[in-house]
Automatic annotation (TrEMBL):
The gene is tpiA. Belongs to the triosephosphate isomerase family. PROSITE patterns: TIM_1, TIM_2. It catalyses: D-glyceraldehyde 3-phosphate = dihydroxyacetone phosphate. This is Triosephosphate isomerase. Keywords: Cytoplasm, Gluconeogenesis, Glycolysis, Isomerase. It is found in: Cytoplasm. The keyword Isomerase applies. PANTHER family: TRIOSEPHOSPHATE ISOMERASE. The lineage of its organism: Bacteria, Pseudomonadati, Pseudomonadota, Gammaproteobacteria, Oceanospirillales. Pathway: Carbohydrate biosynthesis; gluconeogenesis; Carbohydrate metabolism; erythritol degradation; Carbohydrate degradation; glycolysis; D-glyceraldehyde 3-phosphate from glycerone phosphate: step 1/1. Gene3D superfamilies: Aldolase class I. GO terms for molecular function: triose-phosphate isomerase activity.
Length: 250
């Protein structure tokens, strides 16, 4: 019912050589293209190269962020229509590194999600609690609050375009992974919250897990009832690891 999505967030890593390595690795791999969706999310500058290198494979490209305005005097920013011109299919919004290092708040994240949807790009909304918030047992409130902040600002039609990624901040890039039970618990809460909006939407929306997912733990995480894919950081930089995770999902 929900097609798994495996998305690799390269962050500020990679090179033309790595794009080529991935292009070659994907071309050699037999994917059941209708069984899973796959995305590679490199830095902006490499999007065109990635699109070309992955041609003929089922892998689609995504961007790591965008700006919520259509055009104008916003030095350094990139709009949804520009991403669309480069064949971008997905865009991350609300990644914890953007929330903390670049001070993006819920209003900015909502504007980004809307701008993406208006251009037919799928926003992957990242939500997640810090270690302190988990220790204080506030993770549900934090994560559901981040979800509501975007859901409430979207129309019914717009909501249907969204993918959500639960990424506990304490598990990102730390080598610490949420246990499958911890991840499933939050995913189940997210899905229950989505039911307040629309039963059908809740059944169909893809909820990804992100936070030190790797070949060794992917299968167990991905087999949880409400985990519909993964957002992968570190392990998405190695073709063999990333492809192994894709196979675990398919
Ligand atoms: C991420 O930042 O989206 C992420 C999940 O990173 P990592 O897999 O390295 O924890």
């Amino acid at each position: 019912m929900r097609i798994p999505l495996i998305a690799g967030n390269w962050k500020m890593n990679g090179s033309l050589a790595l794009i080529e390595d991935f292009g070659n690795a994907f071309s050699r791999t037999s994917f059941l293209s209708n069984a899973i969706d796959i995305a590679v999310i490199p830095p902006f500058l490499y999007l065109a190269n990635a699109d070309e290198a992955f041609e003929g494979t089922p892998v689609q490209i995504g961007a790591q962020t965008l700006y919520g305005e259509a055009s104008g005097a916003f030095t350094g920013a990139v709009s949804a229509s520009m991403l669309k011109e480069f064949g971008v299919h997905y865009v991350l919004v609300g990644h914890s590194e953007r929330r903390t290092l670049f001070k993006e708040d819920d209003a900015a994240i909502l504007a980004q999600a809307r701008a993406a949807i208006d251009e037919g790009i799928v926003p992957i909304l990242c939500v997640g609690e810090t270690l302190e918030e988990r220790d204080e047992n506030r993770f549900d409130d934090v994560v559901l609050g981040q979800l509501d902040a975007v859901m409430k600002g979207l129309s019914e039609e717009q909501r249907r375009q969204l993918v959500v990624a639960y990424e506990p901040v304490w598990a990102i890039g730390t080598g610490r992974t949420a246990t499958p039970e911890q991840a499933q618990e939050v995913h189940a809460s997210l899905r229950a919250r989505l039911r307040h909006y629309d039963e059908n939407l809740a059944d169909n929306m893809r909820l990804l897990y992100g936070g030190s997912m790797k070949p060794a733990n992917a299968q167990e995480l991905l087999s949880q009832a409400d985990i519909d894919g993964g957002l992968i950081g570190g392990a998405s930089l190695k073709p063999d690891d990333f492809i192994a995770i894709c196979h675990a999902a398919g």
